Amino acid sequence: MAITQVPFGEAASLFRLSNANGLCARISNFGGIVVGIDVPDRDGRMADVCLGFDTLAPYETVSPYFGALIGRYANRIANARFKLDGQHVTLAANDGVNHLHGGSPGFDRALWQAHIDGDWLLLDYTSADGEQGFPGELRVRAAYSFNDDNELVLLLSATCDRPTPVNLTSHAYFNLAGEGDVLDHVLMIDADAYLPLNAQRIPTGQFAPVAGSIYDFRTARVIGQGGYDHNFVLNAARGPAARVLDPHSGRMLEVWTDAPGLQFYSANFLDGTLSGKGRRYRRHSGLCLEPQRFPDSPNQPHFPDTILRPGAVYQTEMRYRFSVYAISG
Known about the structure:
Radius of gyration: 19 Å
Helix content: under 10%
Low-confidence stretches: none
Strand content: 35-45%
Structural class: mainly beta
Shape: globular
Number of strands: 29
Largest sheet: 9 strands, antiparallel
Strand order of the largest sheet: 11-12-13-14-29-23-22-17-20
């Protein structure tokens, strides 16, 4: 694998990670953003399958988390507060009364320290005690590599000096056709249950079975409609957590992870006001498959614990594996 570096704006850099098969990913140390991923279709034609921008400026001001690393806590925390070891903690509220994706700004708009170590792009960020209301200093590392199995690998780790909730993910938006919407993409999610939401998109605390509902993607099917912004309770690792394919181009993406949850978001809030890479981003122009821990876990004690404590190491892995499939018959 080769990694090259060019300027991206005044202070940031853009790193190109390419493998022996000619696939490549472009990642910036601003926000750890996946700016683009070039992969072939079944006829060998390359296309960028990630939504994003051509320059840094929109990522600094108007980006809806396109391709970014999310932290200190991905997804929502109800009422921007929780109780930790008997003490009330108040966070920045940036989604009505709720806290979303680490606040504003979150890790998605931080300038990470970058260096190259062999086949890995390493990005480091130190989140100060009290940043967006979170207790303790948190040291975070994101390690990216694009291997010859056509996998973009992301390893996330963190340590802290005080107890603090941690939930890190990547917010890449994919469109395997490279244009249009994703409603005719075919999706599989290996989950028997999902988390229902209240009117503020906070989990109700239930684990609802997907069987018989529009959330049942255990057998691959056409997405067919938008409106998805839900966390799925992944089954034990038996294979990929999710698989999505575009029947027109033949491009396929598998998401492998050790995370307990997967947020499926169908880009419901894109409204055509943003554009980049020669495209206008309208409703359902992409989809997100975000491995993560469950939303609002600090307020829901029956959800798996998300509190990182001094001396422990937060670690999670996600792999985005690209391939093509042939038309049978």
